[in-house]
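User: I'm putting together notes for a lab meeting next week and I want to include a structural view of one of the chains we've been expressing. I don't have a solved structure, so I'd like a prediction I can at least talk through. The sequence is below, exactly as it appears in our construct file.
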Amino acid sequence: MAYVMLRINRNKEPKGLTVVPLNSMPRKEHTIPRTKGILLNRMIPSSKLKKEITKILFEKGYILNYKFEDDIFPQTIKIALKYHPVTKTSAITNLKRVSSPGLRKYVGADTMPRVMNGLGIAILSTSQGVMTDKEAKAKNIGGEVLCYIS
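Assistant: Thanks for the context. Below is the predicted structure for the 150-residue chain, given as structure tokens.
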């Protein structure tokens, strides 16, 4: 199973969201660049986990729009990032991968992590699917913590 990490690429131009498969982190990076105030869409390979994480980011307001292109092979996802209209800063300010292939981190419903004291979200992979920390706590289930987003 290929896991995904989403993070902001702040050190290199063009700025954008980076989607890195966890099992091939040093080898392959896909960036969605933003140049001169125009957001360029980048197509990334699709998987079930990436689709679920994309849906969660859209529901929580971290990305502007997305599109699953299942009619072509290989299946891809187009993601448009969300930026503040005045300051031009990304909606995703901090993203940290928690569980890695070498060290998985599992939490129970009673030890659920709080990201930025409740202002951010943690994405978990549970037995009932991929969901946020608040949804998992409401359903009283635990799982593997994939990443923190704020």
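A couple of points you could mention at the meeting. The helical segments are 48-59, 133-139. The first helix runs from residue 48 to 59.

User: Perfect, that's what I needed.
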